[in-house]
């Protein structure tokens, strides 16, 4: 079954890559690629949020559908960013060798250098008035 999934991702990646330059009025993928990286990134973020919300609500069928949408938009983003499936598989293999299959790499270790991630200011971060 997993081989089928990787085969499906390969076929999807190839189809998305082949959509570049096609008629944007007839092909959704061509239209999305033409819109550029910001629009594609926005779609990835929207789909990821939808997957998370559906999972939080316990709607398994919707999680499945939204996950498929997320994978599609993620592949479009990879194509736009010139990231190949092999690039992603290689990174997953590297992480498995370093930390084990179930672990996510800490942000401070990406590329061997430390990076600082600061949260964006939000309404919650502001002091509240006491009533």
Description:
The chain is an all-alpha fold and 131 residues long. The protein has one domain: MazG-like (Helix Hairpins), CATH 1.10.287.1080. It has helices at 2-19, 28-35, 37-56, 60-80, 85-99. The longest helix has 21 residues, at 60-80.
In short:
The protein has a single domain, classed as Helix Hairpins, CATH 1.10.287.1080. Helix content is 63%, strand content 0%. It contains five helices and no strands.
Topology:
Layout: H1 2-19, H2 28-35, H3 37-56, H4 60-80, H5 85-99
Helix pairs in contact: 1-4, 3-4
Q: What is the overall shape? A: globular
Which regions have little confidence, pLDDT < 50, spanning 5+ residues?
115-128
Mean pLDDT level: 84
Q: Rg from C-alpha positions?
A: 18 Å
Counting structural domains, the number is 1
CATH architecture classification: Orthogonal Bundle
């Amino acid at each position: 079954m997993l081989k089928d999934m990787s085969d499906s991702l390969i076929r999807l990646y190839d189809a998305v890559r082949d959509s570049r330059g096609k008629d944007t009025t007839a092909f959704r993928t061509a239209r999305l690629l033409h819109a550029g990286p910001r629009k594609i990134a926005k779609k990835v973020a929207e789909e990821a949020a939808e997957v998370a919300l559906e999972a939080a609500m316990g709607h398994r069928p919707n999680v499945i559908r939204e996950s498929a949408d997320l994978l599609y938009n993620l592949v479009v983003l990879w194509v736009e960013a010139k990231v190949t499936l092999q690039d992603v598989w290689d990174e997953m293999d590297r992480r498995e060798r370093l930390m084990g299959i179930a672990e996510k790499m800490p942000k401070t270790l990406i590329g061997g250098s430390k990076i600082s991630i600061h949260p964006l200011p939000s309404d919650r971060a502001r002091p509240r008035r006491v009533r």
